[in-house]
């Protein structure tokens, strides 16, 4: 087990990629606190995995987009004692061409996808620096690198996460804290369910591996970066996109 005895926080762990990350962290022995606005339908499944791995999973209700998330994290710190791993995964889309995009669509996406990481990292980096160890993995997207028509807000938030993570990596590296980014391509989750069949086929045609990803294929990259197997990796963007951006 790669993460026995570690405490991890995963934002947006109730479903999709976040759920797969929670499950793999548990399988590797970490205790996991996941934050989302709703509990989701997978708590029992997570508890079963936790039990077989000899660890625990906890859900904390919270909205990562506002300053109030600090109170949720305070509770976790009190309960856990310390936090070793932070995965900023919560994210949303509000797609539309720029001339039709409402200011709320811009603000909401930037708040949930980017401002959230500022809040969680500001709070937890202090603790990780003090304990002279810790790992942060932020979930960006391939469109934060390539851009995508109809997603100016989303791409800006995801590109922002990359710049944010590289800067933070430089700030905290000397204290033994690592910060990395995973940039997924097209992953089968609720977020991509709404994409129509025609657009889906067109997207698939751009993927050299010829298929979309399952959430578990993103989770394994995240857990690698969170583990000591990546002990000399910081400030990097690991693209997990089936070759889409080659
Ligand atoms: P998803 O299935 O829609 O799940 C999103 C998760 O985020 C849920 O757990 C949701 O729970 C939580 N969440 C949303 N808003 C929140 C808020 N304000 N506060 C707290 N939690 C919140 O999405 P996904 O596809 O797994 O995406 C996960 C991450 O990967 C996102 O950052 C996304 O941008 C990124 N990504 C996804 C893809 C893809 O193809 N799916 C590709 C590249 C990058 P609640 O709704 O209960 O709060």
Describe this structure in words.
The structure is a single chain. With 246 residues, the chain is an alpha/beta fold. It has a single domain (7-238), classed as NAD(P)-binding Rossmann-like Domain (Rossmann fold, 3-Layer(aba) Sandwich). Helix content is 46%, strand content 15%. It has nine helices and seven strands, in the order βαβαβαβαβααβαααβ. It has helices at residues 16-27, 43-53, 69-80, 103-131, 143-146, 152-172, 190-193, 197-204, 215-226; strands at residues 7-11, 31-36, 57-61, 85-88, 134-139, 177-184, 237-240. A seven-stranded parallel β-sheet has the order 3-2-1-4-5-6-7, sandwiched between helices. Helix 1 runs parallel beside helix 2 (43-53), helix 1 crosses helix 9 (215-226) and helix 4 runs parallel beside helix 6. The two termini are 33 Å apart. The protein binds NADP nicotinamide-adenine-dinucleotide phosphate. NADP nicotinamide-adenine-dinucleotide phosphate is lined by residues 11-18, 35-38, 62-65, 89-92, 112, 139, 141, 184, 186-187, 189-192.
């Amino acid at each position: 087990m790669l993460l026995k005895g570690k405490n991890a926080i995963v934002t947006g762990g109730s479903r999709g990629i976040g759920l797969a990350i929670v499950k793999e962290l548990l399988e590797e022995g970490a205790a996991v606190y996941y934050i989302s606005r709703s509990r989701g339908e997978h708590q029992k499944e997570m508890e079963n995995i936790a039990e077989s791995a000899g660890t625990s999973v906890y859900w904390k209700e919270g909205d990562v987009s506002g300053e109030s998330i600090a109170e949720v994290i305070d509770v976790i710190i009190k309960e856990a004692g310390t936090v070793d791993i932070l995965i900023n995964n919560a994210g949303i889309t509000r797609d539309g061409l720029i001339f039709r995009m409402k200011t709320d669509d811009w603000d909401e996406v930037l708040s949930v996808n980017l401002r959230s990481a500022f809040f969680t990292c500001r709070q937890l980096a202090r603790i990780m620096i003090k304990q002279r160890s810790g790992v942060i993995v932020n979930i960006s997207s391939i469109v934060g690198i390539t851009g995508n028509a109809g997603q100016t807000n989303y791409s800006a938030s995801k590109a922002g996460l990359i710049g944010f993570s590289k800067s933070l990596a430089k700030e905290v590296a000397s204290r033994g804290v690592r910060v990395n980014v995973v940039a997924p391509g097209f992953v089968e989750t609720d977020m991509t369910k709404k994409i129509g069949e025609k657009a889906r086929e067109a997207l698939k045609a751009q993927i050299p591996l010829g298929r979309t990803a399952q959430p578990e294929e993103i989770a394994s990259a995240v857990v690698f970066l969170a583990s000591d197997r990546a002990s000399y990796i910081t400030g990097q963007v690991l693209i997990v996109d089936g070759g889409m951006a080659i």
